[in-house]
Each structure stands twice: as structure tokens, then as C-alpha cells.
Amino acid sequence: xxxxxxxxxxxxxxLASCEKWLEPDPENIRNAEQMFIDTHFAQGFxxxxxxxxxxxxxxxxxxxxxxxxxxxxxAFLQMATGSWSAANNPxxxxxxxxxxxxxxxQFLENSQGIKWSEDEEANALFxxxxxxxxxxxxxxxxxxxLRNHGGPTSNGQLMGVPIVxxxxxxxxxxxxxxxxxxxCLQQIYLDLDSAEHFLPIEYxxxxxxxxxxxxxxxITQNASTYNRVMGRYSRQLFNGLIAKSFRARxxxxxxxxxxxxxxxxxxxxxxxNAAADIIQYKGGTNALPANGLTFYNNINxxxxxxxxINPPEIIWRENVQANNGDREAQNYPPSLYxxxxxxxTQNLVDAFPMANGYPIDHPNSTFNENDPYAGRDPRLRHYxxxxxxxxxxxxxxxxxxxxSTTDDALNRLETSTRTGYYMKKGLRMDVNRTPNxxxxxxxxxxxxxxxxxxxxxxxxxxxxxxxxxxxxxxxxAYDIVRAIRRRAGVGTTNNDPFLEECRTDKEKMRELxxxxxxxxxxxxxxxFWDLRRWKxxxxxxxxxxxxxxxxxxxxxxxxxxxxxxxYYGPIPFSEILKYSNLVQNTGWE
Length: 589
Known about the structure:
This protein is mainly alpha-helical. It has 20 helices and 14 strands.
């Protein structure tokens, strides 16, 4: 009986305490108030936004005339061949962007009340730096939202996305209409203004107080305090140079043909001036990094990175991955134990000129269709593995012809090339994927390269002032293109007569600039967006080459299936269903 009574008592106590047992203790529930007592928690609001930054390296080249993939289930392959819809959009950034924006809004509303350090000077510096990062990241996310989801609606308006600049609780009304494109662009610029105001152009230690930038010198005259907050330990966080880069990206997007509209005041001159700021900071036309075209395989440079330092070509990058061979495992040819995932097209190969600078279809090119890779632009051998080009740790010749004795041959296996080519750009040739002897290497993924911004200036300057016009700057579109081509080894022995041919013709220079952008940024996920903002055809059939001895036979590999409205991405179908005030872009209804 005593035992039974004891059990009843325990059960009664358990029932009485059940609610407490099933609920988390208050200290396990985090809310905004915790920001004021836990600085790590507070900083986490900004850190979370860093973690979901969209990548330029997202394989969208598979959806263009530059590449196909042998992975038949790939989302971009499916998109390019007819499966793209508002409900099936691998390019959507809607959810991740708005989720990150909510974190940033909450941080900005509370950050000034947070005590980041007992040292008052350090506290003030931490406050402005973190606010600057948050403003910069907010601009970044609105840029991606505008690029990926902005477009015209059926009533003829050029629309962006809903602009939200405050934290919204779950009880808020989320049924908000879209703001127009120009308003979104202005919001991006306002946030970038704030970021540039709060942040140093780059994070770097100073040796003494006289080197502290003027706008921070009023806060501290202590070099160690400045270095603690704004020095090398903060490298790869959002800074003023990154803000300038996103201003240039946004300005180029807004000036492009796809977004020309009476309500959009953006001009090519705006875009040229924004990009020129970065070129001037770098040191002008001649400061273009000499080894920038092989940034991914500059072995000593990559292996020597430390303290968050960037290579000369890089404005912003992801962290270094040590002992990594993932990209090679995906993209090496089968004979090098890779999956051959990315197959460059004949379309792209044909875009590489001859080393003398002439396009291959120009009468002065000296192109030989029976020896098509001889005498070509040196970038071709750096970026694409063609029949007879070498790759891997032993510089192994890769044979893609149908008589190849390896599985690198055209369509030999599911992992073989579909076009007769494999991607080389982005891969380190000293990575070994041989079973039982696998060796990885250090690598990083760029977020912004200087070459991109140089090309952006060339494009915008040519449109604004013509090939040799300079506006208020000391360099022209012609100067930039000449520097890029000379760095690549194009036209160096004959003074590049084709470039001189384009020098007096704005339309010819436009085509040349667009082609240089295609080559320099290939496989970096720019092509899809460039074609769309230029409103060029998306339906160019992806072509390849079948090689049988000395016979080169062009082949059609993959037909593209885009509709005219697909120059602009959709608002997610799920959002249209939930919110009646959201108007879909034309054609996606």
C-alpha cells in the first residue's frame, strides 16, 4: 500500500509539473532583448545574412549558349529546355532574401543600444562598422531581388519588389504591393550611401594614429583600437569598396536595354561613373592585374593567402577552402577521374578570336577550319579543354574525338562530354583525383573581380560617350578593352588592328565589349543575366563538335526553349497565391 501511495504521489507531482516540463526554460528562448546582453547573439543577426548571400557561381551557364551539362536532372538544364515557371524557378532569391532582410532590419533597429565593448572608442567603432555592414548587405539583397524578380507588368509599368525597411512581426500585414523599379534602385543607392559612410574602403591595420582615416580619427587616436575593429581581422566583411562595386552592378543593370522605361531615370553615364570610381581606386587602366585571367590557378598566389588578404584581381571572395578537390571531381574529364559536369559549347569556342585579334570569321583572321585550335586567343587553352589540350597534374593530353581510347570521347559515357569540350577555367591543375592518391588544394570562390568592373565601365562608357570618350575620367572604353586584350595575349604582335577597326564605330565596339565580357567572365554565371539585360536571343541552340581524325563536324546538342517574357524572372507563384496585392510580371501569370 505504501508503494502504491508513493507512486500516486509521484504521478500527481508529475501531472502538476507537466506544463513546466514540456516548455523550454525562459533562458533557452532568444528574442530581440537578448541583443542587449549578448553581443555574440546580436552580431549573429548580421552573420546570418552573410550565410545566405546568393552566389554568382550557380551553374546558370547551363541555361545559355555557353555550356550544357551531362547531368540530365540539372535544374538549369530543365529550365532552359521548357520547364521554367513561376512555380519552378531555380533562380528565385525571394525567400532567402526577405528572410535575411528581416534579420538586418531587426539589427538596425536595435544595434545602437548595444554595448559592444567596455572601451568607449571601440564601442563606437563596432557600432558604426556593424551598421555599415548591415546597410551594405541590405542593399546587396535588394540588388539580387531587383535583378532576379524585377520586370514589366501587364499595365505597362516597370516594377521591382516590395520595399521593406523595418522589422515586421508575425502579426503584420504582409500583403504589400510591389514598388516600382526606380524606387527599388533608389533604396539600393541609399543603403550603399550609408554603407560607404560607415565603412572604410578596405580593412587594413594602421601603424600609427596619423594613418587612421579622417572620418574615424574623430572617434579614436589609438591605432590598436582602430585595428581591433577596422583592421585586418575584419577582412572579407562588407566594406566600402564592395559597396562601390554593388553600386556599379546596380547602375549597369538599370541602364541596360531590358530596363529602359520612362519611369527609370538611370543612364549609361551613371553606370560608367560608378565603375570608374573602382578603376580609379585600383590605379587606372594599367593597374588591371597581370595574372587576373588565371586567378583560379595562380598556385603560389592562392597558397600564400593569409590574414584575409585578397589576390590583386579580387575585390571580395569567400573564405579559402583548404585541401579541396570538389570542383575538379565534378568537372575533370573521366580520364582524370572527374564527372565532366560542365561542357562548353562550340558557340563559346567560336567566340574566342585568333591571337592576332580578328574574329575567326573575319577575312584577315587566318583561321584554319582543319586545325581550328591553332593560333587562337590564349584564353581558349586556359579556359576550355579541347581535343589535344592538356589537363591535370601530369599535363595529360585529352582526346575528345570519337576514336579516343579514353572515356573522354564525345558521348562515350554519361560522364563524358556532350559537346566535345570540357571546362578548364576554375580548376586547379595540381589537384589529383586518382583513386588511392587523391590530393586536394587550396581554393577560394570570388564574389567580385576587378575585371568585371573594368568591363562594366567599358560597356557603359562606350554607350555614354562612344569608344574613345572619357567623360570626366582619364580612360575610355577603348583603353580598357585594349588593356584586357593585351593582358590576354591578343593582338600583341600586330597592334591589334581589329580593335583599331572598332575604335571609330560605337556599334562594332559594343559587340567587341560584349564578346570580351563573354570570354573573360565565362563559367562565372554572368552570361545568362547579360543576355537578358541586353535583350539578345536566349534561344541560340547549344552546339558541339564531332571529331573523327581530321574531320570536324558541327553538331546540335541542346535546343533552348525560352519565351519572350523570360527576359524577366517571375514573382514566386506561392507568393502570388498568398498576397493579392502582388502583381506578376507579364507572361508569368
